[in-house]
Design brief:
Layout: H1 4-12, H2 16-22, E1 24-28, H3 30-37, E2 43-48, H4 51-58, E3 66-69, H5 72-78, E4 87-92, E5 107-111, H6 117-129, E6 134-138, H7 147-152, E7 161-165, H8 167-172, E8 180-189, E9 199-203, H9 212-215, E10 220-223, H10 242-259
Parallel strand pairs: 2-3, 5-6, 5-9, 6-7, 8-9, 8-10
Antiparallel strand pairs: 1-4, 2-4
């Protein structure tokens, strides 16, 4: 049986200031919890609906984790989901230090003021799919460990490292030779330019785009053309959703890297 104090503590972890205070977050559902158990993350406690489920998790990862059986009623009291999903874990927030030399050997995403939890979670999932291991967020982006973000990553949070920085200071520390791309409504057609296999891609805010103070750092402005975009009479949306734009851009970078020289 869960005590009222433990229920209160778990619900505190749904709030950013308490996650920072205690250095922990919650993750829910068998798939997500399994991904975290098998990663570098440290699982503090697992709360599950039945002993059989707990026994299954005791076989994963060879880690000593405190596991507590709870009822459906108790799970509803601690879950951040509309429909609770069998299991909830309390997880320690890891501390990462970014190696700036990585920008000369791999692709890195920078997210400027991404506010929507679903967008951030989906971008992390997209980065995982395209083999991008590091994402830099502006300090005023949505918190990575917001339950909605964690859930939207679908387990990719276990493989993609996310860092928070003052982006101006961050970009000042980037090696001079590093290529920095930025997404703009007026830029070069991404399908008509040669893209490099390493460097930085800056994705702007959902409604405002890339901040003016970051524009000076962009070495190549790129954009995704809409269908028949050269037709002035065509009515098109003002911009793409940030997560969709990220997926299209990452796909084109990887296409050119892996298949750009193939025939047919």
């Amino acid at each position: 049986m869960l005590s009222s104090s433990r229920i209160k503590y778990i619900n505190f972890l749904k709030i950013n200031k308490y996650r920072k205070k205690y250095g922990q977050f919650i993750a829910e559902g068998p798939k997500l919890v399994t991904e975290l158990i098998n990663s570098h993350f440290k699982i503090i406690k697992i709360f599950a609906l039945n002993n059989r489920l707990i026994e299954n998790f005791s076989l994963i990862g060879n880690k000593q984790i405190e596991q507590i059986e709870i009822t459906e009623k108790e799970l509803k009291k601690i879950s951040a989901l509309k429909t609770p999903n069998q299991i909830l874990a309390i997880v320690e927030i890891p501390q990462y230090i970014f190696n700036f030399n990585m920008t000369s050997s791999e692709l890195v995403l920078i997210l400027d003021e991404i506010k929507d939890p679903g967008n951030l979670g989906t971008i992390i999932r997209t980065a995982d799919w395209f083999g991008i291991n590091n994402i830099i967020c502006s300090n005023n982006s949505v918190d990575l460990y917001n339950p909605k973000v964690v859930q939207a990553t679908m387990g990719s949070i276990a493989r993609v490292k996310v860092y928070y920085y003052d982006l101006e200071k961050f970009l000042c520390n980037i090696p001079e030779q590093t290529k920095i791309y930025g997404t703009f409504l007026r830029g070069k057609n991404i399908y008509k330019i040669k893209l490099v296999s390493n460097g930085i891609i800056v994705i702007g805010n959902e409604s405002k785009g890339i901040s003016k103070n970051l524009s000076a750092f962009i070495k190549e402005k790129i954009f995704i053309p809409s269908f028949d975009y050269e037709n002035d009479n065509l009515i098109t949306p003002e911009s793409l959703n940030a997560s969709i734009a990220t997926a299209i851009i990452c796909a084109e970078f990887r296409r050119q890297q892996n298949w750009g020289n193939e025939d047919g």
